[in-house]
Amino acid sequence: MDLLLLEKALISLFFTVILAILISKLRSKRFKLPPGPIPVPVFGNWLQVGDDLNHRNLSDLAKKFGDIFMLRMGQRNLVVVSSPELAKEVLHTQGVEFGSRTRNVVFDIFTGKGQDMVFTVYGEHWRKMRRIMTVPFFTNKVVQQYRHGWEDEVARVVEDVRKIPEAATNGIVLRRRLQLMMYNNMYRIMFDRRFESEDDPLFVKLKALNGERSRLAQSFEYNYGDFIPILRPFLRGYLKLCKEVKEMRLQLFKDYFLEERKNLASTTRSDNNALKCAIDHILDAQQKGEINEDNVLYIVENINVAAIETTLWSIEWGIAELVNHPEIQQKLRNEIDSVLGRGVPVTEPDTHKLPYLQAVIKETLRLRMAIPLLVPHMNLHDAKLGGYDIPAESKILVNAWWLANNPAQWKNPEEFRPERFFEEEAKVEANGNDFRYLPFGVGRRSCPGIILALPILGITLGRLVQNFELLPPPGQAKLDTSEKGGQFSLHILKHSTIVAKPRVF
Ligand code: HEM
Description:
single chain; alpha+beta; CATH 1.10.630.10; globular; binds protoporphyrin IX containing FE
């Protein structure tokens, strides 16, 4: 390490310690803060609780400190909420007060300090972005317009897998083909285009850059520089890489997708709404001066992450659970065969006639929530929660995974049992009608993509189970379902090899 840098860091550390002690003395007089481990100057609780603040570790801390607790992570306040009552308070009753988002040094880079929709604070910009995005993305009309495309995409997956002899014997990493499908499902909506194969160079580039964006943003390895500003110089290399990835991605969106649509719009009549894809609507808003070009690019960025990855992870989890629970898989297949008839392809309208399929999806989203801590919320101003004072700009995590997996609230929550949604949990829906079950959040900042995600999950899982017997690879009794948690995400650690034995109709 550079000596001058070390000297500067030590001097800053000294003054920060003094400042932190002064601030904490002032604060402790004014505020009744939520319980939590006792922080030390500068580092707060960071050295005690470590970096890996995933949903399970935060659930363990809730058992120790209660349904609301606070961690001081260097300069940042982190408040974790772990009961349905407090979740209701954050997301519904005080939805405006807690309806902003925090970002950290890395999310600042990837979202241009909140020029997007997902990570912007609650206010005018967010309202405008949500309004502009609703018609092209988040209505039932969009579902009806694009569902044939999604049915076509999964039909191609089935056709391709049937053609690979190895799929029926040693198995294949099914996720790879499903990833192409998910990109096509969303790129059809966004840009009215699709990628022909997994080898399409543009798809390969896009997938790699999006993968890097997720890895860099969800990693815990940059926490130290985010929590403790004087350590930030050591994060220089990491942040430089984030900036490069961000620039390359936005440039790719611009050069290969936006420009193409703009050129098309200038050569064809674009007054026919039926022929417009999502980006045409967004570009209209830009032309009217409602948003700027950066906002357009960040909308594309948001959809690439919020829509494609979450849905793909959920499909992957659903398949893994069905492989590991063959009796549930068979029961689902029997339902599809008996309601639709053998070999009649599952379509979007059919998914509403298949209650067991719906229960399998709900159970997957309960046990294997893709965004188990929701997207972090934030209060812009000092606030009250559960009888405690919450200092302005605290990061508020709602541990939605624990709400849906707490044995005090759910019968044998560790069990994958879709039947619970016909029995003791028959009234619970994925739309947030019960504060114990919030896979898409609820309230102002809830997921608007639920309207697309549920039918895509239904069509995809339905078609796969209808067409294949899904099994672990030879010599393996079960798939490895170890988890990989991130800043607020959860996906399967290892992409499984799956045997897909085609059914004959
Ligand atoms: C299974 C798939 C999905 C899951 C589990 C999921 C889950 C979530 C969750 C938990 C949130 C945060 C809620 C909160 O902070 O209170 C969220 C936000 C969001 N999701 Fe999804 N999502 C999925 C699919 C999608 C899709 C397909 C789209 C778009 C087409 C989408 C777009 C968004 C957007 C734009 C936000 C930010 C909303 C805001 O900040 O106002 N999501 N999602």
